[in-house]
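retry 2 of 3: previous attempt timed out while embedding zinc ion. Reduced batch size to 1 and resubmitted. Inputs unchanged:
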Amino acid sequence: MNSEEGAGYTAPITKAEVPDDVQDAIRTLIRWAGDDPEREGLLDTPKRVARAWKEYCQGYEEDPSQHLSRVFEEVGGYDEIVLLKDIPFQSHCEHHMAPIIGKAAIAYLPTDHVVGISKLARVLHGYARRLQIQERLTAEVAQAIWDGLKPRGVAVVIEASHACMTARGVRTPGVNMVTSKLMGCFLDDARSRKEVLALMGYS
Ligand SMILES: Nc1nc2c(ncn2[C@@H]2O[C@H](COP(=O)(O)OP(=O)(O)OP(=O)(O)O)[C@@H](O)[C@H]2O)c(=O)[nH]1
Ligand SMILES: [Zn+2]
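retry 2 succeeded.
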C-alpha cells in the first residue's frame, strides 16, 4: 500500500459542487430519520454527506484494469508466486450502503513479466470504492489481474466485516465473511492451490 494513501484513499474531494437535488435527498433522509435538517448542526450535513459518498464511490471514475498496463520484464528468471497480503480496504454494500471493512490477499504466478506491487492494491481499491457485494469484488479483482497480466494463476482472498450485519439487522459483531476466487493453476492444480493458500496464511 502506498503510505501516502492510508487505506487506498487519495485526497478527499472537499470542494466538489453538490447539486441541489442531491442535497434535498439527504435533507429528506434526515427528516425521515427523525431530525430537523434546518437545525444549525445539520445545515451543512447534506453537502458533507454527498461529498463523502463521491469519495466512497470514486472507483466509478476509473477503469481499475488500467493500473496493470505497465509491466516489468526484467525479473531475473523469477517464476514463483507473487503475493500481496493484508491489504486493507473499505467498500460499501450495495444492499444497505453500509461499510464493508476488511483486508485482501492477492497473488499471481507470473509468466515472463510482473507488475508493480502497488498496482495490485490500486486494482482492489478501484473496485472496492463502488457499491459492492464481497463476492463480486473478489471476482472482479481476480478477473482484472487474469486479463491484464495473463499469468499462470491468480488467487484473491478477501476477509471483511459488514456493518449491515454488525450495526443493524442481525447485529452480530465479530463476524468476518471470507471469499476466494482462484483461477488458472491455483484452480486446477491442488499443489499450487495449497501453496498459495499457505502463503496467504489460510492453511
Ligand atoms: N452474499 C452477500 N450478502 C451480503 C453482502 N453484503 C450484505 N449482504 C446481505 O444481503 C442481505 C440482504 O437481505 P434482505 O433480506 O434483502 O435485506 P434485509 O431485510 O435488510 O436483511 P437483514 O440484513 O437480514 O436485516 C443480508 O442478508 C445482508 O447480510 C455481501 O457482500 N454478500
Ligand atoms: Zn449490507
